[in-house]
Design a protein that fits this description.
Blueprint: H1 4-19, H2 23-35, H3 37-58, E1 62-69, E2 72-79, H4 110-123, H5 127-134
Antiparallel strand pairs: 1-2
Helix pairs in contact: 1-2, 4-5
Length: 152
């Protein structure tokens, strides 16, 4: 499902509403629509994810996932009897107490994703293993947390 047509539809609606108010307001509407492009796409993905979760909660033999590839969202039906792929082995020197794994959905710009894949390929590892290696070294003591910030 290509999200661009929905974003463009919203831009068109905003342009139509602001056009009747004059050139200054119309230009402000255009600038606002451009500034909100990423937020609108993220909101659409949240809506799709919510719909997938709602559908999954009402069926017992499968789950619905939303996957994003190249700016295009797709729904994937995963049968309940399918097994999740095994988690990769922890990197050498990993803390023995940290035996759990977590699944995380991460939205990245395509350029950053490409650089991560290239770096992982150069090292001959998966993107997941590369990310684990790139994280902070394990800490000893009470409470383990990762802090930082991200920019999109």
């Amino acid at each position: 499902m290509e999200l661009s047509e929905y974003v463009e539809s919203l831009r068109g609606e905003l342009a139509a509403v602001t056009r009747v108010a004059g050139d200054d307001v119309a230009r402000a509407g255009e600038l606002l629509a451009e500034a909100l492009d990423s937020a609108v796409r993220l909101t659409l993905l949240d809506v799709l994810s919510g719909a997938a979760a709602e559908i999954t909660s009402r069926i017992s033999d499968a789950s619905i996932e939303v996957r994003l590839a190249g700016g295009e969202a797709t729904f994937v039906v995963v049968a309940a009897h399918q097994q999740e792929p095994e988690a990769p082995a922890p990197p050498a020197g990993a803390d023995e107490e940290d035996s759990g794994t977590a699944r995380v959905t991460l939205r990245l710009p395509d350029a950053l994703k490409g650089r991560m894949e290239a770096a992982a390929s150069r090292e001959g590892v998966s993107v997941n293993a590369w990310l684990v290696r790139a994280g902070p070294p394990p800490r000893r003591g009470p409470g383990q947390r990762i802090t930082g910030f991200a920019r999109s």
